[in-house]
Amino acid sequence: MTIQQLLKTAPVTTLLLASFIGLFVMQLVTGVDANNPSTEALVKWGANALPLTMMDDPWRLVSSAFLHIGLMHLLFNGFAMYFFGQIAEPMFGSAKFLALFLLAAIGGNLLNNYVTWHSILDGTGQPGLSAGASGGIMGIGAALLIAALFKISVNGMVLNLKSLVIIMAINLVYGFAVPGIDNAGHIGGAITGLLIALPIALVYRKRELAQQAAMAQAQQAYQNAVQASYASNHQPSYQTSLHDNQRGNPPLTNIFADNNIQTPVDLNNTADTADFDQSGGYINNYPINNYPTYIDPKKFAPEPVNVSLIWRLLPWLVMVVIVIGFLWWWQDIHQQILQVLKAIE
């Protein structure tokens, strides 16, 4: 997929990738090492660092998601964002996709700080820092798992649940196997992505069931109209799919598949002229005037179905609840740190 195609299909994904690369280039211009940036440089450029993030710099919960520790880290996360983003953004919509990425990144960083803080209290850990988009990306991957589970389609294609499970499992196992990987950030991002994607999937399922019900009603109305047409012309024997195909009324199983298709009688077609006597004006011994009228299926096509406002707002309401939960969580850790510092003084 070219950059122009990606920008058209997934504009937020394109902008996120550009921001990752742009921030990395800015670091290089200011003299930051491309492969082994110093701790001071990472803190300066917005890394998630305890206790800074949980004290006066909560903005680091977001900024650290755009910062990467070296070129390989950037390439790995950039490829993952490109792979997941071009699927997830058209599926969820650009606004929900951006909110999903940011909240998953924040959730991952909060869990990282929570785990780090309690390991310090237990005497088993020490303050550190983290950076990278992997928490947000894991949230997107988890959301795609939900989409595959609910068989949400994008451009007519349904995601392969087994493949997504394998990809997510490899990332988690790799994180536990290799030192220095922010597993808490990955897990926190994935959990946040699951929580956000679930209401989106429920709304999709609700709309899909309503659409199926509307389609069934439309098909029944079409069938009733066709049967009424046959009955009014006193030709009950013609209620067969064969004559439907030959004389204009499409088979019921194919209606609405292509509303622009009609099947008029072709006088040059031997299959039609076998039943049509041009000189006598009869079709299978019935007068033309009494032959069933073509029923246009477009007249019975259901209107696009939409769910109620509360259902449409449900994903956003869940995100608001998550934001409130994150604020409470940050405040809780913040107060714990203040209490410890006060006790030390």
TrEMBL record:
InterPro entries: Peptidase_S54_rhomboid_dom (IPR022764), Rhomboid-like_sf (IPR035952), Rhomboid_protease_S54 (IPR050925). PANTHER family: PRESENILIN-ASSOCIATED RHOMBOID-LIKE PROTEIN, MITOCHONDRIAL, RHOMBOID PROTEASE. Residues 58-199 form the Peptidase S54 rhomboid domain. It is found in: Membrane. The chain crosses the membrane at residues 12-30, 65-85, 97-117, 129-150, 157-178, 184-204, 309-330. GO terms for biological process: proteolysis. One of its GO terms (molecular function) is serine-type endopeptidase activity. Keywords: Hydrolase, Membrane, Protease, Transmembrane, Transmembrane helix. Belongs to the peptidase S54 family. It is a multi-pass membrane protein. One of its GO terms (cellular component) is membrane. This is Membrane associated serine protease, rhomboid family.
